[in-house]
Write a structure and sequence with these properties.
The structure holds two protein chains of two kinds.
Chain A (H helix, E strand, L loop, with lengths): L1 H54 L3 H5 L13 H7 L2 H32 L7 H13 L4 H10 L6 H5 L6 H13 L2 H9 L4 H12 L1 H17 L2 H6 L8 H8 L9 H11 L3 H36 L1
Chain B lengths: L3 H8 L2 H20 L32 E9 L10 H10 L1 E9 L3 H10 L6 E5 L5 H4 L15 H9 L3 H5 L11 E4 L8 E5 H6 L8 H14 L6 E2 L5 H10 L12 E3 L5 E3 L4 H15 L5 H5 L6 H8 L5 E4 L1 H14 L7 E4 L9 E2 L4 E7 L9 H13 L1 H9 L6 E3 L5 E3 L3 E2 L11 E2 L18 H7 L2 H13 L1 E2 L10 H27 L7 H10 L2 H18 L1
Parallel strand pairs in B: 1-2, 6-9, 11-17, 15-16
Antiparallel strand pairs in B: 3-12, 4-12, 5-9, 5-10, 7-8, 13-14
Helix pairs in contact in B: 2-4, 6-15, 11-19, 13-14, 15-16, 19-21
Classes of the chains: A mainly alpha, B alpha/beta.
């Protein structure tokens, strides 16, 4: 017994040393890791910081390529000018509307669809899943899609923006897996207490699914906020455009090399003050950037919870 | 569309996707959607609102008001407003009200294709450059304008007066008809040319170069003075510079490559990229690159317009680069920040001449319009033709579209000199900056959809800067526009065959042109390169085009 203790004590310095050695290695690794991640972080932040710096710089300095981290020729006039631009705000309002309505519709449809699909006893469940998954791989094509939306009378309406993208199959499947992972016993208990399917869904399942719902709201709202393509296809009036299309139009001069005509047309946009682009970009990303930190805590857990059992 | 996650990776290739899908699926959709295209037009019966005595240089006023749908490309800095005087004044004068479909400038070409392919395009499709109509011809989505120009007296008058009949022939398709009407330019002045630092060229290089050889000498001197510089650049992947340089070497390249077929002097067509002139041009640029005179990054880097080149221009690393009058203004903005206003001079110079002579590209056409074939059913058909003839080609209308209302926004003296009234300004051309109302932004005049299209020399000179007027003069005084190539329109099946043959050949040409210029391939291998083109079916392609040329000659 005693000898064991002594042996243990004798052995312990070695172990301690080894621990120290390990921790030094860990520390070195940690240091490298930190440096690496910081570099990575800087690499990702750099373009953003440049745009931010440009937005406060004078157009001349931007055209002369003098702006990288800090504003050169500090000016706030452009913020003033952009903020006074009626079209910008109208389009901004449209984006908010499309995002809110689109996300609300998408969440309603996705949660209900996913809940139904998560019920293994449901007859025809596989067909319903098949219908959804099919659209991940095949679609009608651009022109037929356009003709369809157009003939449904949805062109130049809110519905052309929010309905075609209302159900994301990826989100649907994540949500379905999440619902499947909820203990059946709770539902059974609720049934015994007299709740119907709508009651179970609304009063039991949804409150238990805050994490996944928050994540999906984030996914959908970011997607609707950033989307310009549906608007580009289905809207013909600039007062209906979302701000992303306004922004895309602003920075279009960059891609005008295909023909002389296009390039000549592009040069007229060059007259546009260079930092208007940056200011518009900043004003466009800020709201969605602000939402992120608040939803992020649900973010990982929401997706992971869904995927564990999937 | 249904996968939110799927959107992110797809977005990068959407432009490609649109192009591909529209090109591929367009024909199919057109078959289904453009059933109105076959309708025979009876101009005399579809004459509601038309004027009986409409002739050149008279005011068009519809005898009965009507609405005309119009595709409007919206520039980001020029948001369209219904209340623009442009719309109200035109309606007041002509009884024609525009009903506008707005498309963003950023993706205007794609959206236009989509609308036409889906049979959903407005009646009038402006901002069409020659050649862009080709893809819509075979489906019958656009009207053959040549059938109706007899009702357009202004168009006919100025084609004759400015001697553009030969070039109009070049618009013809295989059926002998043309499907778009271009904007007519009285003077042939290339839009894109070399923009130089005039002060540096004068002090260091001893003057403004008139030929490519003189340019080379000048660049050598500049390089000696500014050793870190690579004085020549092109912000358009080389496409712009090769375009205006090629004419001086008796070739076609870059943006102006077209079908690649050009007149060999004997009335038949030869493939330019296998010609001696093309080789000479490539050798010339190879020499410049070898001596470190060309900013090769600008030839290879993804195009960003004048962005990066503009920065280098401002930092005195580049002293001559491709651009239009807009580019020159843009370069000046950067130089103001670095060199300081008043310490430099930027000048657009006439494209230098070369072995083929002091020759520049023919530039008598600018953007014009197509008409949706659904218009063939309109009872206002004749009135629409008359209206567009007035709007696009009548001098009064051109002046109106550029300057606004006479004696309200501008005045004109006895010599025809136009002056903006003190209350008005035109920021796009830096005119009257102290005026309170911008005739472009606030009133819609000088808009890019209509204003640049047809211009007499006087009108062009009326709003441009004195240095641009100088540029026009120098081009007209010292350069001859190259004769247009003889027309060789292809039939529908041939078009497909030609496209199948020409695309890989053109890829080889593009890749090797760049390789030769950058020195990645020795110019001694030129014959091997020509053999490669022949291996890809060059002769078959040349025969196809020359066959079409012969047919066209016989038919006309």
């Amino acid at each position: 017994m005693v000898t064991e203790v002594i042996a243990k004590n004798q052995a312990s310095p070695t172990r301690t040393r080894r621990v120290t050695q390990d921790s030094r290695g860990t520390r070195v690794f940690g240091a490298f890791n930190t440096v690496f991640l910081l570099l990575l972080c800087a690499g990702m932040l750099y373009p953003f910081i440049t745009v931010l710096a440009q937005s406060f710089s004078s157009p001349g300095a931007i055209k002369a390529g003098q702006v990288s981290f800090w504003p050169v020729g500090f000016n706030l006039d452009t913020y003033g000018a952009v903020m006074q631009n009626e079209t910008f705000w109208r389009n901004y309002g449209n984006t908010v509307l499309y995002t809110v309505v689109g996300t609300a519709i998408a969440m309603t449809l996705t949660t209900t669809y996913a809940f139904v699909l998560s019920k293994k006893h449901l007859k025809g469940r596989k067909v319903l899943i098949g219908i959804a998954v099919f659209t991940m791989f095949f679609n009608g094509g651009l022109v037929p899609n356009y003709v369809l939306i157009s003939s449904l009378g949805m062109k130049n309406t809110l519905w052309a923006i929010v309905l075609p993208g209302a159900i994301s199959v990826f989100n649907l499947l994540v949500m379905k897996s999440f619902f499947e992972s909820l203990p059946r016993d709770i539902e059974e208990a609720a049934q015994i207490d007299g709740l119907g399917w709508y009651g179970i869904f609304g009063r039991i399942v949804l409150p238990l699914s805050k994490a996944v719902i928050a994540t999906m709201v984030l996914f959908y709202s970011v997607a609707f906020w950033n989307d310009w393509f549906a608007a580009f296809l289905y809207l013909d009036k600039s007062e209906l455009f979302p701000v992303t299309l306004f922004l895309r139009n602003l920075i279009a001069g960059a891609s005008t090399s295909t023909s002389e005509g296009a390039a000549a047309a592009g040069t007229t946009t060059e007259l546009l003050s260079a930092n208007i682009e940056s200011v518009t970009m900043i004003l466009t990303v800020i709201p969605i950037l602000c939402v992120y930190p608040f939803v992020q805590r649900y973010f990982v857990s929401g997706v992971m919870l869904g995927s564990v059992k999937g | 569309m249904s996968d939110v996650f799927g959107r992110t990776p797809m977005r990068a290739t959407r432009r490609g996707l649109i192009g591909f899908t529209v090109a591929g699926g367009g024909a199919l959709a057109l078959g289904a959607c453009s059933d109105d295209g076959d309708g025979e037009v009876n101009v005399d019966e579809q004459a509601k609102g038309a004027m009986d005595d409409f002739k050149a240089d008279t005011q068009f006023t519809a005898t009965e008001p009507f609405t005309l749908s119009l595709l409007w490309t919206e520039w980001p800095d020029l948001p369209i407003t219904d209340s623009w005087q442009f719309f109200t004044e035109i309606e007041k004068r002509t009884n024609v009200k525009f009903e506008v479909t707005t498309i963003p400038f950023s993706d205007a070409v794609e959206k236009r294709s989509l609308l036409i392919s889906a049979g959903d395009a407005p009646s009038v499709i402006p901002l069409v450059y020659t050649g862009e109509e080709n893809s819509f011809v075979s489906s019958g989505a656009v009207l053959p304008m040549s059938d109706y120009v007899e009702h357009m007296p202004n168009f006919q008058k100025y084609v004759e007066e400015w001697d553009l009949g030969g070039m109009i022939d070049n618009l013809k398709q295989a059926d002998g008809k043309y499907y778009m009407l271009p904007g007519l330019q009285e003077v042939s002045v290339p839009v894109f040319t070399l923009v130089i630092r005039k002060d540096v060229f004068e002090t260091v290089a001893g003057g403004i170069p008139e030929t490519w050889d003189e340019l080379r000498e000048a660049l050598v001197k500049i390089k000696a003075e500014y050793p870190n510089s690579k004085p020549l650049a092109d912000g358009f992947e080389g496409q712009s510079m090769l375009n205006y340089a090629a004419h001086a070497f008796g070739a076609q390249a870059g943006w102006g490559f077209g079908t690649g077929m050009m007149d060999d002097g004997s009335g038949t067509l030869q493939y330019t990229a296998a010609s001696a002139g093309y080789k000479e041009m490539v050798e010339y640029f190879r020499g410049l690159v070898a001596d470190g005179l060309v900013d090769t990054d600008s030839f290879t880097a993804a195009n960003d317009g004048e962005g990066t080149v503009g920065e280098k221009f401002a930092q005195e690393l580049v002293f001559a680069a491709s651009g239009s009058s807009g580019t020159a203004i843009d370069f000046a903005v950067g130089l103001d920040a670095t060199v300081g206003a008043g310490n430099y001079e930027v000048l657009q110079i006439a494209p230098p001449g070369g072995p083929a002579g002091q020759i520049c590209e023919p530039r008598n056409f600018w953007n014009g319009f197509m008409l949706n074939s659904e218009l063939a059913d309109s009872e206002y058909f004749l009135a629409t033709l008359q209206f567009l003839d007035w709007l696009y080609y009548s001098p009064d209308a051109r002046e109106l579209v550029r300057w606004g209302v006479l004696d309200e926004t501008y005045t004109k003296d006895a010599d025809g000199k136009i002056t903006l009234n003190p209350d008005f300004r035109l920021d796009a051309y830096k005119l009257n900056p102290e005026g309170t109302t911008d005739i472009q932004k606030d009133l819609g005049w000088s808009n890019s959809v209509f204003a640049d299209s047809t211009e007499s020399r006087a009108l062009k000179e009326s709003y441009n800067t004195p240095t641009f007027v100088e540029y026009i003069d120098s081009v007209l005084a010292n350069r001859t526009p190259r004769d247009p190539n003889p027309p060789a329109p292809l039939e529908e099946a041939e078009l497909e065959q030609a496209s199948l043959l020409a695309t890989p050949i053109k890829d080889t040409v593009d890749t090797n042109t760049l390789k030769f210029i950058l020195g990645e391939r020795d110019i001694a291998e030129w014959d091997d390169y020509v053999a490669e083109l022949e291996g890809q079916g060059l002769q078959q392609y040349v025969d196809l085009i020359n066959g079409a040329r012969e047919r066209f000659k016989e038919n006309s």
